[in-house]
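pls read this protein:
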Amino acid sequence: MMNLILIKSFFVEIGELAYFARRFFKELVKKPFEFSEFLKQCFHIGNRSFLLVGVTAFIIGLVITLQTRPTLEEFGAESWMPSMVSISIIREVGPVIIALTFAGRIASGIGAELGSMRVTEQIDAMEVSGTNPFNFLVVTRVLAATLMLPILVILGDAIALYGSYIVEHLKGDVSFQLYFNKVFNALEFGDIIPATVKTYFFGFAIGLVGCFKGYNCNKGTVGVGKAANSAVVFSSMLLFIIDFIAVFVTDIFFEI
């Protein structure tokens, strides 16, 4: 019985999120567009996330190289390290882990921020004063998250590859030029383009879920904490679903 209730509530929430997304696209084309608020949110979202993303990406590069190198050494295939690491980071590891880090930082922040505005009736006050709170608060944040995550992923991938190079330089005395020549020789547009495109969907999902949870927050200050927590959980789950769909579609496309 409890499982049925959970399944029902899950599908209800999916429906409400779809309606929220529909409203987002309707408000997106309405004027005026809050361009100054959009730029402000881009700066805050990118600036708040860059240090965390950079440290995470650097550690990813170090760990993947340190764990993989002993296995390749057993087969005398150390020369394959730059190719293997670059493809794994660019295609999958970098986008997914950075997106999860972004979700933990941004989805929770947006959920808590809008939740606080909802329970303190600031959003209601904006509606009474004639301001469109959805356009000002939701549209700008969703667009900023959609734009900033791909940029952060590109920067994070570069930092992760640099972390991998440091290990290779210390362990195998590989030069910077040789390492990155092998990296770029291994990569193709089929590796970069799909991985970059799906990060836009990741960013959109994270921003939309964070705004959805915060904008519809209730039950006072307790609800603010629940909105922040559920925004991270729900957006993380959506990331895996979107990633599966992206990989599946990419595989079909390249088979054709």
Summary: The chain has eight helices and no strands. The chain has a mean pLDDT of 86.
